[in-house]
Design goal:
Layout: E1 6-16, H1 56-68, E2 72-73, E3 76-77, E4 80-83, E5 93-96, E6 103-104, E7 107-109, E8 115-125, E9 129-135, E10 138-144, E11 151-157, H2 164-181, E12 193-202, E13 212-217, H3 220-239, E14 247-252, E15 257-260, E16 273-274, E17 281-282, H4 285-294, H5 299-308, H6 313-319, H7 323-333, H8 339-350, H9 361-374, H10 379-392, H11 394-401, H12 408-418, H13 425-437
Parallel strand pairs: 13-14
Antiparallel strand pairs: 1-11, 1-12, 2-6, 3-17, 4-5, 4-16, 6-8, 7-8, 8-11, 9-10, 12-13, 14-15
The structure holds zinc ion and manganese (II) ion.
Manganese (II) ion binds near residues 14 and 154.
Length: about 450
């Protein structure tokens, strides 16, 4: 192969905010395990004359996301109508943001130091849900509008991603960020975080003249599999001197491949225009600064802070997965006196020996110190126990002498038991070996 094929991948991530009410009305935004069409009103059903009023909390949440993702926050922004026809979209348009979103630019930094640039982060409303069923032998499609107009944040990246691995890392950072901010549960199984990848493969270092959109994937593993499948497929087509078709595809987890999908917006002309029922939104510098200072420490920062405090990388990563646990360990770092103590404390919690929710950081640190100090039986005391267990088990001694050297573990166990865990197993093993080989 004398050509250099480089995957060019951009991501679009939709995150449903966990606000109490919907984006433009006061209906409850919660729509899981709710009887169909019960959280609806004239606004989210798109009835004529109903007026949308933006949800203040949703605006606050998207600004927090923007700040956490290093975006520029636009003090002036507006909503636009994005038109297309589909039964789950009762108004015939989605209220979204077109040319003046809340957040532009920004980036996500990968562990390698590579920055994935963001194009924009905007606020919009979710659609209803179609449910396909067979009733009385007939195939029917039902519409549930409970999800209609639930606040949705869309995070769009530049095509800076060049592998499935990078895509996965990028997505995991977005996932943990919104969860840390507490603005969404980002549960992919429930569809509160939905992933789309725009994939193409470049054969000349330039941006390819086509792209394939893989839509609505609901796990990190599947999106990585879909990307790898697409990269191989495009490369094969390019090697034949052809260009892959620009299209939308879906991923089948059972077939482990992507399949062409009929796109719901046949015409790509959405006829965007400013939403006439919602005045443009202006934010103040102070408002943004207040939100900035209210942001929690984000996962990557948690990891670097803990590592600086002496925690091992894998422990720091594990701790950072949970915001409360991270806060807890920040307190632990102020109590510990060595890297060893830090990692003993982390290990005790991560390996489920101590439930951190039931102990204060002080108790955790004291417990690991006691465990450390407990192994303080002197060599003399250990020797005494070694003599005792040898004298008490002549049959096992004989076995050992006949060549069954594994019986040493039996003796180590006996010494540990007699010392109630206070002996050092290494020292006991050494002393036993010396004694038994004599
Ligand atoms: Zn409503
Ligand atoms: Mn969208």
């Amino acid at each position: 192969m004398n050509q250099d094929f480089t995957p060019v991948i951009g991501m679009e991530v939709h995150v449903e905010l966990s606000t109490k009410s919907k984006m433009f009305c006061s209906c409850p935004a919660d729509h899981f395990h709710v009887p169909p069409n019960t959280h609806v009103c004239p606004v989210c059903l798109g009835l004529p004359g109903a007026l949308p009023v933006p949800n203040k909390q949703a605006v606050e949440d998207i600004i927090k996301i923007g700040l956490a993702l290093n975006c520029r926050i636009n003090l002036f922004s507006k909503f636009d109508r994005k038109h297309y026809f589909y039964p789950d979209l009762p108004k015939g348009y989605q209220i979204s943001q077109h040319d003046q979103p809340f957040c532009t630019g920004g980036y996500v930094e990968l562990k390698s130091g590579k920055k994935i640039r963001l194009t924009r982060v905007h606020l919009e409303e979710d659609t209803g849900k179609l449910i396909h069923k067979t009733i009385d032998g007939k195939r029917v499609s039902l519409v549930d509008y409970n999800r209609s107009s639930v606040p949705l944040v869309e995070i769009v990246s530049e095509p800076d991603i060049s592998s499935a691995e990078e895509a996965k890392e990028y997505l995991k950072i977005i996932h943990s960020t919104v969860r840390f901010l507490g603005v969404s549960d980002a549960d992919m199984e429930k569809g509160s975080m939905r992933l789309e990848a725009n994939i193409s493969v470049s054969s000349d270092g330039k941006l390819p003249p086509y792209k394939v959109e893989v839509k609505n994937v609901n796990s990190f593993r599947y999106i990585a599999a879909a990307i790898n499948y697409e990269i191989a497929r495009h490369t094969r087509i390019l090697l034949q001197g052809e260009l892959p078709k620009q299209e939308t595809r879906g991923y089948s987890a059972t077939l482990k491949k992507t399949l062409p999908q009929r796109s719901k917006e046949e015409a790509k002309d959405y006829r965007y225009f400013p939403e006439p029922d919602i005045p443009p939104i202006t934010l103040t510098q102070e408002y943004v600064a207040d939100l900035q200072s209210s942001l929690p420490v984000l996962p990557e920062k948690v990891v670097s802070t803990l590592k600086d405090a002496g925690f091992r990388d894998d422990y720091a990563q594990e701790i950072s997965k949970n915001k409360e646990q991270s806060k807890y360990f920040f307190k632990v770092t102020s109590l510990i006196e060595s890297n060893k103590e830090a990692n003993l404390a982390a290990s005790a919690v991560i390996n489920n020996r101590i439930d951190w929710t039931k102990h204060t950081p002080e108790e955790l640190v004291n417990t690991i110190r006691q465990q450390k100090n407990r192994q303080t039986l002197s060599q003399e005391e250990t020797e005494k126990l070694v003599d005792e267990v040898i004298a008490a088990n002549p049959a096992v001694v004989a076995e050992y002498k006949r060549g069954k050297t594994t019986s040493i573990e039996f003796f180590v166990g006996q010494v540990m038991a007699r010392s109630r865990g206070q002996a050092s197993a290494t020292l006991a093993r050494d002393l036993l070996t010396l004694r038994l080989q004599a």
